Structure formats: C-alpha cells, structure tokens
Amino acid sequence: MKKILGMALLAASFSFAQIGMEGGSDGLHQINAKTLGQWNFTIGTGGNISLSSWGLSRGGMFEVNGQTYSYNDWDYSQAGNFFVGIGLLNWLDVGAILPVYYEHANSKGPAGTTNQWATSRGDLDLWSKIRLPLDTNNVFGVALMLNMYIPTGEEAAGVRPRHVWYLNSDGYTHPFTANDWVFAAGLAGTWDFTKWGKPFRINLSASYVYPLDQDLTNVLMYSAGVNWIPKDWVDVFVEYSGEARLQTKGIYKFEPSEDPMLITPGFRFHLPYNIDFAMGLEVAVRTFKNLGFDHEDEMDGCEDRVIRYTSREGTEVTYCYAPTPLISGAALLTWRFGADLWRDSDDDGVNNNKDKCPHTKKGIKVDSEGCPLDTDKDGVVDSYDKCPNTPAGVSVNTDGCADKDSVILTDENSMVDSAALNAAERARLDSLNRLDSDKDGIPDVSDKCPNTPEGIVVDYLGCMLDFDRDGVPDNADKCPNTPNGVSVDSTGCPMDFDKDGVPDNLDKCPNTKEGLAVDSTGCPSDTDNDGIFDGQDKCPGTAAGLPVDSVGCVLDGDKDGVADNQDKCPNTLEGIAVKEDGCPVNKKENLDELKKGIQFQTGSTKLTKKSYTTLNDIASLMRKVKSANLEVQGHTDNTGSEATNQKLSEKRAQAVVDFLKKKGIEADRLRAIGYGSEMSIADNNTKEGREQNRRVELVPFEK
Questions:
Q1: Alpha carbon of residue 4 to chain centroid
Q2: How far apart are CA 393 and CA 414, in angstroms?
C-alpha cells in the first residue's frame, strides 16, 4: 500500500454510540482529545452488520398476541450513520451525526406487518468538543465533550434498542429513538507516545448521559483503546467500549453485566488524499458467557429484561432485550479536508500536515517528511553537496567533498590522510584514482557502474542516464517519457502485444485478434452497441435496443422482413405476403387469427362444427406452403384437477392434428402437445379469463 499523502485524520466526532463508527482519528469506537484545527472539516460514514437473529432479540424470538415466533436464523441487524465535523477554532469542534438503522427481521410470523422489518433514522446527535489549553506537542491531552440528542428517530420501527437509555421503565420501548431530548457531558484523554518516537497511542473517555424523560435511565458511556502504529499508513488497534445504566428503573434491574460491552480488534488504513478506512470485528462481552451458543443459557433471566413494543397498527410485540449482537463486522470511511491540509507554507512539495520541517528554504531538496536531504550524512544537504556519496567518517569542506589535499582513496575505496603515505604509495593510489576502465569519464573509484558500454551517456555516478527509468538508456530511448511502471520494448516504447495500437498498460483486451478495429481501451469496437463487434457485424447501423442475431442483424424469427420487436404476427409462414406490421395480407393465411376459430364442445375433445371451416383453411394454407410444419398446443383453464386438464389439453391438440391428417397433411409435418393449465394468459378467477385460457396455439417448427 502506498504511504498516505497527509497525517492521520484528526478527530471528527467523539459521541460514542452502541455501534460507534462516528469519525475520529483512531480505531472505530475510540474518542481522543485531538481537535480538527480551525476551518478544517471531516465527513464520512460508518456502520456494522450482524448476521444472526440473536442480534435482534435474545434467542431470536418474539411474541404477538400470546403466540411465540422466531426470526429466521440468518436474519440480520445493521446500524450506520453519516457524520460531519467542523473546526471553528483550533481548540473547538462542532458537528452532527445522523444514525440510520435497518432490521432484517424476517419470520414466518408477523415481523413484517408489525414494522419490525424496517429501515429508519435514529436520533440526531449535535456535539461539540473543547480541547483544554494544553500544548499540542505534549504527550498527554484532554478535551471536554458535550452532546445533545434530538428525538428525530422513528417511534414504531425496529427490534433492538440502539442505546441502553432507550429502555423505558414500563418496558414500552422505541428501538430507534429515546423519544425525548437527551444530553451528555464527559472527558476524553489521549496519551500520544508517537511524540516521543514510540509507535503507540492510548485513548480513554467517559460521558454522563441524562435523558429529560424521567422514565429513562441515566447512563455512563465509556471507551478505551490501544493503538500500535507499525507503519505510517496503518494502525492496529484493540478497543473496549460500552454503555452502563447507573440506576434501576421500573422493570429493568441494575445489571452492568447485561449492558452493552464490546471488544473490538481491527485495522485503520490511512489512504492518500486524507481518507481513512477502518475495519474491525465487534465481539460482545456477553458472548463469552455462552461460548457454546446454547439457547437455554441465552434465554436465562429473560423475564427480567422484557421489551414491549407497539407497532404503527397498535399491535403489541414482546421479546427479551439483546444489548448488542454477539459478533458483528464493522467498517468506517472518513475524509478530512480544509484550510491547512493542502497548504505548503515553505513550498517544498510537502503539505503542512505532514511537514516536520515547515520552514525549509526554497529550492532545498527534501525527504517525504519535508526535511532537507543529506544522503551521505556529512552535514551538507544534498542541494549544496557536490559529493553526495562521501564515505562515513570523512571530513568534508563546505561543498560536501573530502579535502583532496589531505585525503586519498585507497584500494579498499576508503579515504586516508595522504600525509601518512610515502611518495611511491601516494603515486600508485593517485594513478588508481584516475583509472577509467569503461572510458565514460568517471574514474573507477567513483564509478558505480564500471562496465557501462561505450557510447552510453552517464550521470556523475557513471551509470547510464535513463530519464523515465524504463531500463533503456536515453540515447536509445524512442519514448523517453514513458510513465513509471509501464513495460517497454527494446526501443523504450510501451509494449503492445496484440499490435492494435493501444499499449499493454492501457489495453483492457490485450489479446485482440489482428485486424479488428478497437476503441481507446484496446477492446474491439461496437459502434451500434448491439453486442457484435464491428468486424463481425453485417448490419453495423442497428438502432439502439433492437435484439440482434450472431451477425448483428435484427432478429426476424418468421423471416417475413419485419423485425421481431415490431412484428404483431411473429408466426407467419414462409412466403406469405405481409403488411407493415408483419401480419398476413390475407386473413385466411394468418395463424394468429385462424387459431381463434378452433373450438370444442364444453368439457369434450369434439370439435364444434364452426371449427371445420377454420381447420379447412389451415389445411389449405399448409398445402400451399409445403415447407410449413405446425405444432398444435392445447391449453385449459384451472377448473378441475390438473391431471384431468392435462389429458384434456393433449386430446384436444391431437384432435386438431387428426383432422388435418384427414385433409391430406403429412403426419411428419404435424405434432400435438398439451400443457394443461400451466401456461395461462389471463386471470382464471374471472369467466372472461378462463375463456381466454381455454385455447389452441399454432406454432411453426423446423424439422
């Protein structure tokens, strides 16, 4: 993964909910003492999903009108939100969070009709964070947190209460809202050991939640997290978070062990453009009390935690309270932008939020953290160093080069004081220092590429110049600006395996057959977008949306010259003259009209006398069109048993075939098949519909 372009995102919000994922800059549920900075912004979304009905209610069960039902085993519960944060001052942030909840509460019972299977909003959370006036460079920081929850959530929807303070003392609870105003205040503390060069950060927070409705319970919200930062693009974290009721209210006992508590391990990735993506696995502490997932153990004590829920229709539903899903997958996506993120005060190419040397002089080469480069660590920055590869320990002048009057390179390529050598040794080494085996102008003692072929242009290290770093020297490179990472041929130009004019790095169809016209992505072009490539399309101007055959021409099943999508008589026999709508000019040659005249006596396979005229016309048409073959399909309504209907439809179809045979039509040109009532074309619940379903279809076929 690439390194991030900016530092990790600062805190977006600190309001901890049962699901968490509300911004911040650490983990998923953690709250830290950092603020955004004036006129910086953060937006994002987060959520979790639990694929178990036990995340809806204890044991996945509920009761309506004294009847017990179960949700489906793999029903699931989701909780998410959309959030925004703004830094009004360097030490003051404000923001808003809108929760969105979804319960897939499906069952054989009435879960859907009681609005348990629902998607809806939660209570809008308006928050502020005030960082106390401590030096931001200190390891420890603290912030005051204030929240106001506005009762915007839907009252009669969902199953699992999303906050523990939603539990009303009389048991009649709204899963998605407190249904009253709620306020919270607390503190967050951060120990940021990265300021001491250690890759760890610890966050603690706690808030007191006070609902105005006296039937709701006062609550302590808390979170703790340890973050290990092995690389600047990823954090590894473990969190402990929860909500604890501080008093007994009504039917709900004071039982801290039955309140929401989560352990969340995970990863947080710091992506380019100041985007964070975090993911983790939420494991409820109550899961460890029943590792065998025994249903009886899960339901133990249910009677002390009964929830009463009234649907929109007034139906009362009861079930046992599940504070959290047992196991959930969670994720968070957040983006920070604003005043100082993209600013580069010293114009060194490193933004302020990443620049550890923010006052570098203009023109000085810097590293990824914005500090001047000094490759050979000789105290002279690279921008001024004329000898940037001086060996360690050698004293240099203001140009960064060793004092040639006092030092000389030895056979081991180290520098020694020339005054310590005798004249013969000094002369030998001096000659060695001027030796240039590959005649590229760089002495062997300084040549990092001592076997460069003759004629190749080299840099000050003796290595060939290759501006685009594609492995082809500049003097032989016909494409000297090839983008980094693109495979090239011997001339330095991008590879094009299928020789379609689109280089392999851009070619989405790298094995296109030779000669096929291609588009800008290297894929065969299809000008009329009918799914047939231009090189194979015999009808290249097909209008949009028309179905085509394998050569790109509009489908015409009966080959009468009228496309199927416009043909009102798609079963016209071969050679029959048709009108613009595809129907025969002569009505006696129109199978769709002729079939309407085939009728049977009620409940019988005997043809009516009126049918003989129609059947004679059909026989005459088949004698005229020698290539015609007909499948006679019998259909009934759904009156009576299906077995009886099936036999009746078969016998009626056969009766038509037998009549046509008597009229001289060859047996191999005819076939009969019955479908009973399975292929209805109208509503069997009406008399008119049943009449339409009692029919015979005439369908041409090929042998």
A1: 20
A2: 10
Fold annotation for 571-700: 60s Ribosomal Protein L30; Chain: A; (3.30.1330)
Spatial separation of the C-alpha atoms in residues 604 and 613, rounded to whole Å: 19
Please tell me the pTM assigned to this model.
Answer: 0.52
> What pLDDT digit, counting tens, does each position of 497-521 carry?
677 767 777 777 777 777 677 776 7
Q: Catalogue the E-assigned strands of 159-260.
A: 182-192, 200-211, 219-231, 234-245
**Structure-derived torsion over alpha carbons of residues 28, 29, 34, 39, reported in degrees to the nearest 10:** 70
| d(C-alpha 295, C-alpha 297), whole Å | 5
Cα separation, 265 vs 192, in Å, equals 19
Token digits of residue 479 = 């494409």
pLDDT higher than threshold 80 for residue 199: yes
What's the distance, Cα to Cα, between the start and end of the chain in Å?
62
Decide if pLDDT at 378 tops 80: no
The model's confidence at residue 441, banded by pLDDT at 50, 70 and 90, is: low
Say which CATH architecture domain 40-338 belongs to.
Beta Barrel (2.40)
Cβ atoms 703, 637 nearer than 8 A: no
Helix (H) or strand (E) holding 85: strand 76-89
Please tell me what DSSP assigns to residue 494. B
Q: Which two tokens stand for residue 527?
A: 């000008």
The two tokens of residue 241 are 């978070």
Residue 207: pLDDT band with limits 50, 70, 90 = very high
More confident residue, 350 or 197: 197
Alpha-carbon separation of residue 3 from 273, 366, 377 (angstroms): 11, 16, 24
Bridge partners (DSSP) listed for residue 333: 45, 277
Residue 649 has pLDDT above 50, yes or no: yes
Q: In what order do the strands lie in the sheet with 316-320?
A: 67-70, 61-64, 316-320, 306-310
**The pair of three-digit structure tokens given for residue 350, joined into one six-digit string:** 């490193």
| Residue that is written with structure tokens 């030779």 in the block | 514
| Angle at which helices 642-662 and 609-624 cross, to 10° | 60
From the number of C-beta atoms within 10 Å of its C-beta (0-12, 13-18, 19+), residue 673 rates as: middle
Measured CA to CA, the distance from residue 46 to residue 30 in angstroms comes to: 13
The helix, strand and coil proportions of the chain, stated in percent and rounded to the nearest 5, come to: 15, 30, 55
258 vs 18, 172, 262, CA distance in Å? 14, 19, 12
Domain ranges of the chain: 40-338, 571-700
Left if phi > 0, otherwise alpha if psi is -120 to 50, otherwise beta: which for 147? beta
Is pLDDT above 90 for 3? no
3-state secondary structure of 667: helix
* Nearest to 305, CA basis, from 247, 254, 244, 243: 254
Residue in the block written with tokens 């603020």: 35
In the numeric block, which tokens belong to residue 404?
A: 């040639």
